[in-house]
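Q: Could you fold this chain for me?
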Amino acid sequence: MAEALTLADYVRSNSYARVPSAERQDEGWTAYKKGYELRIVVRTQDDLKQLRRLLLDAGIQPGRAFRKAKQWVVPVYGKAAVSELLKFKPKARRS
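A: Sure. Below is the predicted structure, expressed as structure tokens.
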């Protein structure tokens, strides 16, 4: 039997974040509508259920999951929640 994955495993394995640009915040809501979002991608419905359970146990409310290219995507919204989950990811490489 395979080991159960942790929340950190899911975030590190396949997730991506959208963080608003500080420079563009002055444009106002009508021109710039970006917010904090982290999308965690899983392959199976079993992984989807486990990930949602782990997020709820951590006190993080997941958004509604959706299908994308035969995978499931679980969005997490909000600055506090995204910042907490980004602690699990390694620093991004810049080219």
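A (continued): The mean pLDDT is 86.
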